[in-house]
Amino acid sequence: MTAVSTSPTPPHDEPIRALQAASDLLKALASPVRLGIVRELSGGGKYVHELVDALGVSQPLVSQHLRVLRNSRIVTARRQAREIQYGLTDEHIAHIVLDAIRHAQE
After folding, report:
1. Nearest to 78 by CA among 88, 69, 86, 70
2. Three-class SS string for 7-54?
3. Contact 97, 88 (CB under 8 A)
4. Cα–Cα dist 60/87, whole Å
């Protein structure tokens, strides 16, 4: 008779899923403009025009990169009257980006 284990064990592919999720996150951040957006949002919510001014790039370019960040669930959007305020879904993302920027400057 074979003993059946009752202790929960993670599926064999669980580590691969975690690695894939981390890879997808890093891919979503793999743009100087997107890193700049996250850096700007680390100080709190911002409107598109504020991001355009801070980054010195066009509004369509900022909107395109915000779309990527929203689809990756890195950034949230909250409508306020006629404008949308963007913020980070998780402050851990800001730490990752700010640490990467500091590391690159060493």
Report:
1. 86
2. CCCCCCCHHHHHHHHHHHHHHHHCCHHHHHHHHHHCCCCEEHHHHHHH
3. no
4. 18
Q: What is the pLDDT along the chain (106 residues), one digit of tens a residue?
A: 545 545 455 566 678 889 999 999 999 999 999 999 999 999 999 999 999 999 999 999 999 999 999 999 999 999 988 999 999 999 999 999 999 999 999 9
Q: Write the burial class of residue 33 (CB in 10 Å: 0-12 exposed, 13-18 middle, 19+ buried).
A: middle
Q: How far is CA 16 from CA 27, 92, 103, in A?
A: 16, 21, 27
Tokens of 31: 């743009």
Residue for token pair 């400057």: 105
pTM: 0.83
- Which tokens go with 68? 């990527």
